[in-house]
Structures are given as structure tokens and as C-alpha cells.
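Give me C-alpha cells for this 59-residue protein.
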Amino acid sequence: MRWDGPVEAGAARNLLSGAPKVFTVEEWPQALNVLHVAWNRVIRRELLDVLGIGFAAGW
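Here you go.
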């Protein structure tokens, strides 16, 4: 998958199907081929605040 190419339904499931439950990118570099977007992740707001990450009004 490329950022400028089509996104296939279920691509992340296929790419990560053999991944261990917990891993680093060094251990499982295929994770970098998954499109990571904010709307398909659950992240504690506290973590975003600590990291100084925020969303503009309306997002």
C-alpha cells in the first residue's frame, strides 16, 4: 500500500495477521505498511495532552 494509492478494505488485517500481540517496529517492520489514521484508533486523551497533540476546533 502506498499513501498516494488506493486503499484496500481489510488491508491492515491481512498485513498484521501474523504479527505478535505486542511488538516494536524493529521486530515487525511490516506495521509501517499499514495506514495509521486517527479515526480508527482509540487513544486516551491524557496521552495526547502529555504529548502536546491536539486537534483544531471542529475535528
